[in-house]
Amino acid sequence: MQDQHFLESEWDYCLVLDACRYDVFSEVYDEYLDGTLEKRRSIGSSTPEWASRTFTGTHDLAYFSGNPFINDLGIPLNELKWGASCDYEWTASDHIETVFDVWKSGWDDDLGTVPPESIADAFHSNQSAVEQADRTVLHYMQPHAPYLSRGKGQKLKQIQKGIRRQEEAEAETDTVSDGGTLSSLSDTIRPKVESRLEDSELAQKAGLWLELDPTELVKNGTRETALELYEENLRIALESVADLVTELDGRVIVTADHGEAFGEQGVWEHHIETYIPPLMEVPWLEVE
After folding, report:
1. Where do the H-state alpha helices sit in 98-206?
2. SUPFAM superfamilies from the xrefs (predicted)?
């Protein structure tokens, strides 16, 4: 199994499925897409880790991001108090030429996430940027929780609340002078902001458990229930991807930033620097 080599590989369009593990993808993808599938090793076990290690230079990309960690806010990952929880001093806008914050413009309050159609809509609405860029990335949030069939989306709703609170706090002060970082907030405002964001972070750490139905857990078991919802999320994303790729002229790749764990080695979901196969093994599909 080779490393992912995301930027070093040849492609014109790369469609990133957030938290998509190889084994589940390999079982269902051919119902939606034709192509040559490889198993590759990701460079990170979470989006902040993957992004900061992948985009290290300056890259002429049109990046349609459903994931709020890859954004055009100009705030380093280590200052995103609403969920990054890492020490990475990395900012997407410093490395990626054009980032479209679809996680913001295409957010669905009822679902608590960015549905696949929001990525496609943003792509269709910004064709001039696509034509000007060397390559294009479309970063879908699925199969990452929340699970669309449930329509609750508690986990990412907490992150979204944190984003809004951070932006509101920045708007309340005139001391912001370096791109809107949290560190630039006044001494009177910053403690209040950090307190609110810590509450949000604690809530979102409940993660997967907020997405599952207790009745289903008792009936089917945690792992089985979670995997069923996860696969359904992946299928919803693949339906949208299959519609979009018919429009794309050039080499198209479907891959993931990292995988997802469902109890393997005691790990659930995905965490920074957790190098187990369910998190590190991702699909690399060259679409025909």
Report:
1. 102-105, 116-125, 127-132, 154-171, 190-205
2. Alkaline phosphatase-like
**pLDDT tens, position by position, 4-60:** 999 999 999 999 999 999 999 999 999 999 999 999 999 999 999 999 999 999 999
Taking domain 2-149+230-287, whether its CATH number is 3.40.720.10 is answered by yes
How far CA 50 is from CA of 40, 95, 274, in Å, comes to 13, 13, 12
Bridge partner list, 14: 137, 253
Element (H, E) at 231: helix 222-245
- Overall pTM > 0.85: no
Is 86 in a helix, a strand, or coil?
coil
pLDDT tens-digit map of 240-278: 999 999 999 999 999 999 999 988 998 888 888 999 999
Q: How far is CA 274 from the centre of its chain?
A: 17
β-strand partners of 3: 41
The reply to whether omega before 143 is within 30° of 0 (cis) is: yes
Closest CA to 130 of 57, 65, 56, 64: 64
Nearest Cα to 196, choosing from 154, 157, 160, 166?
A: 166
Query: pLDDT class for 166, splitting at 50, 70, 90?
Result: low
Contact indicator for 251, 195 with CB cutoff of 8 Å: no
What is the distance between the alpha carbons of residues 182 and 75, in angstroms, rounded to a whole number?
Answer: 8
CB proximity list for 233: less than 8 A, separation 6 or greater: 142, 143, 144, 145, 147, 148, 149
For 80, which DSSP code?
-
Segments making up each domain of the chain, as ranges: 2-149+230-287
Kind of pairing between the strands at 35-41 and 268-269: unpaired
